[in-house]
Amino acid sequence: MVEHLWQFLRQNILANRVFNGYDTIGNVCCDAWVALPAMPERVASFTSRDWAQANG
Description:
- It is a single chain.
- By secondary structure, the protein is an all-alpha fold.
- The chain is about 60% helix and about 0% strand.
- The protein contains three helices and no strands.
- The chain is elongated, with a radius of gyration of 14 Å.
């Protein structure tokens, strides 16, 4: 699941960008991570896989 989330961030928020330095990379990554709560349906889609369900 984490791999899918990271892939989404790379392809949709972090892709095709040029960064001026490590601080900028860190800030952009933090901004991308903070943006996830505004996309609950997208995040839920990563966890709704049949194989990702917990049985207990």
